[in-house]
Amino acid sequence: MKEIKFDFNNMLSINVGNVHGVEKDDLLEMAKDISLGHNHLRALAQDSRNRINLGLEWMVLPYQESRVVSLIKKLGDEIASKYHNVIFLGIGGSYLGLKAAQDALASPYYNEFTKSRDNRPRVYFEGNNLDPDTLSVLLKNLNPKKTFVVVISKSGETTETKAAFISVEGWLKKGAGKNYGRQIFAITDPDSGSLRKRVTRENAKDSLSFRSLPLLKGVGGRYSEFNMGLLHLAVIGVDINKVFKGAKDMEKKCSSADYAKNPAYMYALLHTILYKKKSKPLAIMMPFAEGLKSTADWYVQLLAESLGKKFRRKINVSRDGVEEWAKDNSSIVNVGRTPIPCRGTGDLHSVQQNNIEGQNDKVVTFIRVEKFNSEIRISAKGDILSQKGFTELIKLAQEATEWALVRELRPNCTIILPEVSAYYWGALLFFFQMATAFEGELLNVNAYDQPGVEGYKNYMYSKLGKPGIPKGIVEEINNNPLKKDQNYII
Ligand code: PA5
Predict the structure, then answer these.
(1) What is the DSSP letter of 408?
(2) Those residues with Cβ within 8 angstroms of residue 236's Cβ, 6 or more apart along the chain or in another chain
């Protein structure tokens, strides 16, 4: 079986010169950090206490028991056979993995064509913004009796998801009859949060109402596709075992201490060197496959929330090896590469101009697909395109983009995917998760929290009067209002 390959030729000085490319010495200088990072990550991976407490349980998700997969498949098939539409509500890590899977693994134009989706239900994603237009049009057009709703929120508290859920529940209640709760499924924390409380109350009244799946402990939103995304995969008919097999094979490859054989380590290492030593803070993720656009969006969240941090990490280890991570408040570091999603070939007619001639502060990651699920051969005669296949053309466009970047000494790399299938997609996600975790080790930041996101949440909650916000935070918000001088609004 072919493997995913990571081609990093164009990140090296041999191709883009020593001002912009990585040299052998740069790698040798990192030897100590590499072995420290590897040893730490492996030790964490092997200790379930640390995995759960610190948020690294994602490392073992592909090894979930087959009975869990069978149960979820059964649930997915049951929903698919009874309903015409399924609405998934969730945001951030409770949405982006599902959307990435939908676009990569379901047929293109899935909702439009019944045959292409094997008669399975149409799928809609909501609760991932607060724009009233999309949800209201959706609810105006769907039949509540034929619609199933899956609400996903680890905390059970997130405003966007909660607001959408309250609205959708009201709509179901009105249109689907008194047993409407049987058309609701919740994926949330097993113990805490208002969604979990609601599930418990509803279950006590009717065990078929508000059925739920508990999220595993120690899995943060952006690392949770192989946990909270599974029911969605089952609804659209994706073979979860194949996704897991791809992830497991990648996990084995990415556990090697030898970075020359470990694509995730190499990816993290070269990007860290280019970021720190060659002034390349921008990370462009550019798949040449329409189905992988949302996977690029998923990666944007993974990189931005995991590594964009104000403080480094301070590690305390107890005598029996249990770790506690705190913020190292001694200095502000503000680290983290900035991810930007891009797509081939569409964006070659847009952002690519800046990638090639704008500031040389970016590293482009291409995702190249070797074989697509279908092929179109161009039939016209007497044209340079005659008899060419679309696959040949898209691959040529990707190669041409690499060439153009190299000519301008712009570092870039290519992840080569034999095809977009459940197996390779599972492997690809695991690869990025491992690479991000290792990059977190090299930067010495906590790659599993997102304290920066709390700022806006606290502001909103405080203005909405949510109980329980610490007094100090409310005071800070009230004492520092936004300054809106009308002279500066024209
Ligand atoms: O990665 C994360 O943890 C976040 O992006 C969350 O997924 C996001 O904030 C949604 O949170 P929740 O699932 O609690 O609604």
Answers:
(1) T
(2) 76, 80, 101, 102, 105, 106, 110, 117, 120, 123
Which of 125, 126, 150, 158 for mutating ligand 1's site (highest number of atoms within 8 Å of CB)?
158
409 alpha carbon to ligand 1 midpoint, in Å? 38
| Dihedral angle of Cα 461, 466, 471, 474, to the nearest 10 degrees | 30
Q: What angle do CA 428, 431, 436 make, to 5 degrees?
A: 130
User: Which domain-ending residue is among 182, 213, 240?
Assistant: 240
Q: How far is the CA of 305 from the centre of ligand 1 (A)?
A: 10
Return the SS3 of 461: helix
| Cα 46 from Cα 52, distance rounded (Å) | 11
349 is annotated as an active-site residue? yes
Please give the Cα distance from 484 to 226 (Å, whole number).
45
281-304 pLDDT, tens digit each: 999 999 999 999 999 999 999 999
Written as one string, the DSSP assignment of 11-24 is: GBHHHHHHHHSB-H
**Of these residues, 140, 178, 349, 471, which one is catalytic?**
349
Owner of token pair 């090697």: 256
Q: Is the CB of 305 under 6 A from ligand 1?
A: yes
Q: Which residue out of 169, 305, 402, 439 is catalytically annotated?
A: 305
Indicate whether residue 153 lines ligand 1 (CB < 6 A): yes
Helices 159-176 and 194-205, axial angle in degrees (round to 10):
20
Range of the domain at 146: 58-240
Distance (Å) from CA 192 to ligand 1 centroid: 14
Is 43 part of any domain?
A: yes
The span from the CA of 114 to the CA of 427, in Å, is: 29
Nearest atom in ligand 1 to the alpha carbon of residue 188 is 13
Is 433 within a domain? yes
Q: Is 161 in the pocket of ligand 1 (CB under 6 A)?
A: yes
Q: Kindly report which listed range (226-230, 285-289, 460-464) carries the lowest average pLDDT score.
A: 460-464
What is the C-alpha separation between 345 and 368, in angstroms, rounded?
A: 11
Q: Dump pLDDT digits (tens) for 387-440.
A: 999 999 999 999 999 999 999 999 999 999 999 999 999 999 999 999 999 999
If asked whether residues 186 and 305 sit together in one domain, one would say no
- Residues 15, 89 share a domain: no
Residue nearest to atom 9 of ligand 1 (CA): 92
The verdict on residue 478 lying in a domain is no
Our answer on whether the CB atom of 306 is closer than 6 Å to any ligand 1 atom is: no
- CB distance 355 to ligand 1 below 6 Å: no
Amino acid at 143: N
The predicted-structure confidence for 39-50, as pLDDT tens digits, reads as follows 999 999 999 999
Q: Could you tell me the distance, in angstroms and rounded to a whole number, from the CA of residue 40 to the centre of ligand 1?
A: 26
128 lines ligand 1 (CB under 6 A): no
